[in-house]
Amino acid sequence: MAGANPTPSEYIQHHLQNLTFGLHPENGLGFAHGAKEAAEMGFWAVHVDTIGWSIFLGLIFITLFRSAAKKATTGVPGALQNFVEILVEFVDQSVKDTFHGRSSLIAPLALTIFVWVFLMNLMDLVPVDFLPALFMALGVDYMKVVPTTDVNATLGMSLSVFVLIIYYSIKVKGVNGFVGELTLQPFGKKMIPFNLLLEGVGLIAKPISLALRLFGNLYAGELIFILIAIMPFWIQWALSVPWAIFHILVIVLQAFIFMMLTIVYLSMACEDH
Amino acid sequence: MNLNLTLVGQAISFAIFVWFCMKYVWPPVTEAMHARQKKIADGLDAASRAARDLELAQEKAGQQLREGKEQAALIIEQANKRANQIVEEAKDNARAEGERLLAAAQAEIEQEVNRAKEELRAQVSALSLKGAEQILNASIDEKAHAELVEKLAAEL
């Protein structure tokens, strides 16, 4: 935890620290006070802020779309229904363009990924000190409000996609087909270990790259906002505003890329060679 | 961590950013949404108009069909009437022709009969004259008795 007058590096580190809940070897079960304690908790700890915000934003998404769906008319749509329809149509079109198999899962999955990731990214546009200051007043020391700047969140999503990739691969091609795809390409039977290495790396790289791309973009964006926040307050807007405007593009683009790559990976999993 | 002017600086940035979004980001988005709403409204409008047009057209078609049927019935009726008329006329003509033929035949027959009668009468008078001449074996004044014989013949 930073002192009364944090140095820039303390300030940055404070902002990059998640609210971690876990079992500390010495202090027992509780919230971590600082990065060191959080690290000492090891793997079996939870970033409460990441989970809380992502669930909160997911609930916003579900509530919004559910209410629009319930009130949907076949006539001229209202503002909310119109908005939701635009998004659904957009995602549906993207899925149709890319995914040629038949699956009732993939379009809702893509929609959820797109909107959810977008909402989580959107938190990046809220000034970096607003919500932490609010939670500080409520007695919570650490608060990272952008779930996608936490690699746990992005990797969690991409691993879910990875599980789906494997599930669809086996479902469509069978175990033999899937194993064959991993071992018999691209060099035929004589090079099975090499093929396995090559295809295995390719397979593993999918979720890793999916997660790290989103995480990296948002983490960098967040970091730049934090760096700008260290500057004198009267000049911050000169850098912060252009970066925020640019960030509008980034957050939409990253949400779209995550969705699109999910569709592409799943359609690759569903295709026979 | 403590509160300081950073918060104010971020508030300024946020205010400018929100203003920017209101000015340059929000309008195109809402415009696109309105355009979509308008498109849907227009589409629904066109659909209902088309439905109404269809109804009108169907009604019109039905009416024309009815009119056509009526006209056809009228024409058939007229044709029947005309046909009856022609038949009647033909019958009348035939009857008249028949009667005429019959009358002509009868007239001819009568004429023939008359002629035959005349011939017969002439022959009878000649024959009776010859008979009387032979019966009397005497010369009879033809002139004196012709009147008698003719009266006899006329009675035949």
UniProtKB/TrEMBL annotation, chain A:
Its main location: membrane. Signal peptide: none annotated. It comes from the Bacteria. One of its GO terms (molecular function) is proton-transporting ATP synthase activity, rotational mechanism. Coiled coil: none annotated. CDD domains: ATP-synt_Fo_a_6. InterPro entries: ATP_syn_F0_a_bact/chloroplast, ATP_synth_F0_asu, ATP_synth_F0_asu_AS, F0_ATP_A_sf. The chain crosses the membrane at residues 44-65, 105-123, 151-170, 214-235, 241-266. GO terms for cellular component: plasma membrane; proton-transporting ATP synthase complex. It is a multi-pass membrane protein. One of its GO terms (biological process) is proton motive force-driven plasma membrane ATP synthesis. Pfam families: ATP-synt_A. SUPFAM superfamilies: F1F0 ATP synthase subunit A. It is found in: Cell membrane; Membrane. Keywords: ATP synthesis, Cell membrane, CF(0), Hydrogen ion transport, Ion transport, Membrane, Transmembrane, Transmembrane helix, Transport. Key component of the proton channel; it plays a direct role in the translocation of protons across the membrane. Belongs to the ATPase A chain family. This is ATP synthase subunit a. It comes from Oceanospirillum sediminis. The gene is atpB.
TrEMBL record, chain B:
The chain crosses the membrane at residues 6-26. It holds the Pfam family ATP-synt_B. Keywords: ATP synthesis, Cell inner membrane, Cell membrane, CF(0), Coiled coil, Hydrogen ion transport, Ion transport, Membrane, Transmembrane, Transmembrane helix, Transport. SUPFAM superfamilies: F1F0 ATP synthase subunit B, membrane domain (SSF81573). The keyword Membrane applies. It is a single-pass membrane protein. Residues 69-130 form a coiled coil. It comes from the Bacteria. GO terms for cellular component: endomembrane system; plasma membrane; proton-transporting ATP synthase complex. One of its GO terms (molecular function) is proton-transporting ATPase activity, rotational mechanism. F-type ATPases have 2 components, F(1) - the catalytic core - and F(0) - the membrane proton channel. F(1) has five subunits: alpha(3), beta(3), gamma(1), delta(1), epsilon(1). F(0) has four main subunits: a(1), b(2) and c(10-14). The alpha and beta chains form an alternating ring which encloses part of the gamma chain. F(1) is attached to F(0) by a central stalk formed by the gamma and epsilon chains, while a peripheral stalk is formed by the delta and b chains. F-type ATPases have 2 components, F(1) - the catalytic core - and F(0) - the membrane proton channel. F(1) has five subunits: alpha(3), beta(3), gamma(1), delta(1), epsilon(1). F(0) has three main subunits: a(1), b(2) and c(10-14). The alpha and beta chains form an alternating ring which encloses part of the gamma chain. F(1) is attached to F(0) by a central stalk formed by the gamma and epsilon chains, while a peripheral stalk is formed by the delta and b chains. Component of the F(0) channel, it forms part of the peripheral stalk, linking F(1) to F(0). The b'-subunit is a diverged and duplicated form of b found in plants and photosynthetic bacteria. F(1)F(0) ATP synthase produces ATP from ADP in the presence of a proton or sodium gradient. F-type ATPases consist of two structural domains, F(1) containing the extramembraneous catalytic core and F(0) containing the membrane proton channel, linked together by a central stalk and a peripheral stalk. During catalysis, ATP synthesis in the catalytic domain of F(1) is coupled via a rotary mechanism of the central stalk subunits to proton translocation. Belongs to the ATPase B chain family. This is ATP synthase subunit b. It comes from Oceanospirillum sediminis. The lineage of its organism: Bacteria, Pseudomonadati, Pseudomonadota, Gammaproteobacteria, Oceanospirillales. The gene is atpF.
